[in-house]
Amino acid sequence: MSPILLSCHTLLVSLTLASAPPRPTKSPSTQPGGPSVRIQFNMPKERFTAIEDRSLRLTVRNNGPSPVELADPFRNSDATLTYTLTGPEYPQGRSANGREVTLRNPDNAVSPDAAPRVRLGVGQALESVLELHEWLPVTRPGRYRLEARLEQPALSVESAPVEFDIVASTSGPASLGFDVAARYRSSVFATWFQEIEGQPMLVAGVYADATDDSEWGVRWSPATILGPVEPGSRDALAPWTNNTQGAPCVDWVVWRKGASVMALAEPATTEHPFRMDLEAPPESLVRPPLQTAAGELFIPFIAAGGRELRLLRFQSTLDSTEVTPGREVGRVRLPGKPIASRATIQPDSLGDAISVVLVEDTAEGLDLHHVRSRAGGGLTRVASTRLPGLRALPSSEPGLWMDPAGRLNVAVLAASLKHPRRAMLAQVRYRADGRLESPPRVKALAELPAVPRAAIARHHPEDLSKGELFWAILLVDGRMVTSSTKNGGPITPRHPVALPLELYPARDTYVLTVDPVLGPSFEPLR
């Protein structure tokens, strides 16, 4: 369990309510025998990071001797229950109520009428959840105080405060996981490491492109801390899945430390994960890991020395109670040491065959090596393709897309051997059996205004735009040249671009950047 998770922190606030307007001679707060209502705030813990869900459960209970009537304080149209947060981000305090928060989204229809009245019998209660991370968001570390004030006719009561801490944390780069052939606009899964009070934590979040025109873009979502990992852990990876039917399945997260490759899924924890100990630290894990609807996880990796591609497999189920060992299911010798790689998996309608494309830099140009999994397991190199006259861009990852017929489409960003600042795009298609279908197509993209630092190509994963290609080249000065830039010139992201590069093709196309506190930040390539 994470060291920042503490026991439930509970605050009881006693309020005195009047069921009818007060007489001039008596006030509700002093009327003997008047109805008594208690509001209970339940916090899951009292130490949070800025990235987390901070939800408090509220219970309004009638502890008095007789029934009570009051306007429902939890209706969106209600403005009588106000919360005020005070702390480093809001030294003077910031307030919010349900009506105000609901009206922040123009798509929400809120009745101008008062909230309906509710009747609470003796011992009865109303419950609701206050999503504090959305109502009163904070990112600055420090101690915060939350107070509630209820203002209804003949009633004005302030609660006692409840306090909690926002602890300092630092985010690392994230990786993104998709469905390889989503049938509708889908979300993207992200995972990364977050340093929290000196302890590395594995973190995950789900993000989606906004669907309303008033808030175009990817909305921030609170993340989930999956648990602590060992210092020195690296390569937090989100798998891509071929579960196009959307059936419930096991979800995995991958990372490594030294010669050990770890995976997290039920019933494992980060302290006791699925684990495979190799004889030597791998040269690299091939991105992304690949998961199937049957609960299998495949992790291709380039072994130490760089001349061998190997494949690990883990397996679990939704009702599994044991952490089973992983095993190696394939390996293939490579003709040269690759400088880039990428993996993908067929849509589940075609089976679970895996393809890995490795890019080798030679004196004559780039060599692509296509490796596929065989029926019954194992790996085989089915094709090698020469792209003459091209040289690799640094930290460039190819884009892969397997169409419904099983053909593999590969996009590689490169530079001309004769003109190193001229960006080139090579596209290669392989048949369903893995062999080359037609000669590669190569075209010039742009003259780069600065030295390139990294590059990426991606195909749109969804049916509405499947196969559409996007690409981006990061320059050493922080600017980007992209396929989506409308004015043709470089753009400058607000936050540092995540490395390795990641694109999120949704309604718009986004590059993944790193907010140092909140983690993944998606910026449109316009």
Compact summary:
With 526 residues, the protein is an all-beta fold. It has 2 helices and 42 strands. A hairpin with a 4-residue loop joins strand 23 and strand 24.
Task: Note down, in words, how this protein is organized.
The protein is built from two helices and 42 strands. The chain is mostly beta strands and 526 residues long. The strands form ten sheets. Strands 3, 6, 7, 10, 11 and 12 form a six-stranded mixed beta sheet that branches. Strands 18, 22, 23, 24, 25 and 26 form a six-stranded mixed beta sheet that branches. A hairpin with a 2-residue loop joins strand 19 (253-257) and strand 20.
Task: Output the radius of gyration.
Answer: 28 Å
* Beta-strand content: over 45%
List how many beta strands DSSP finds.
42
Quote the average pLDDT. 84
Outline: elongated
Measured as a percent range, the helix fraction is under 10%
Number of helices: 2
The span between the termini is: 42 Å
* Uncertain spans: 1-35
* Computed structural class: mainly beta
Major β-sheet annotation: 6 strands, mixed
